[in-house]
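--- STAGE predict ---
source: upstream dedup step, 1 unique chain passed
mode: sequence only
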Amino acid sequence: MGLIPGHGLEGITTDHTPATATTPLAQPTGADLLVEVTATVVIRNFDKYYPGVPIEDFKPKYFPLMDGSLICPPLIKDLLQVHAIIIICSALFVFFFRNTFTVVRYIRSGKVPHKALFYILLGSQAIGFVFPLPTLISTFTERVDCRTWVVNSTSTQPPNAELPHP
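--- STAGE serialize ---
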């Protein structure tokens, strides 16, 4: 059995044994607190989150964070996918934001008599500017209705998102 060093994850084991049973505590200071956690959890759609793992052989694996939170591998995988979506949508937002204002500057200062192409370009860049907003906003706030978000940005839906039934 090995431990994963660095990044505050020293208590994470690489096998399926619980970290609390195999990880000796360092000299506790006055600010450290040891909490024994016992829980019963129902994992719905087990095959979706743990593909290829027989239920009979399943042993939960949790990773402790520095704040005392416990996270599991499917959450880590989902967070990595969501972070990739955020990076892509942010890059698109910045790109189209810059292009939209560049087109507005050309329209205002251009000496071209027929500016129809610039207005068409402005419309296309404004659409691209608005497209990533539902995904970015719904990632950072819970007040947005998921059904509205899917209608506006179905191509950037997170892989494990489950929509509520109306």
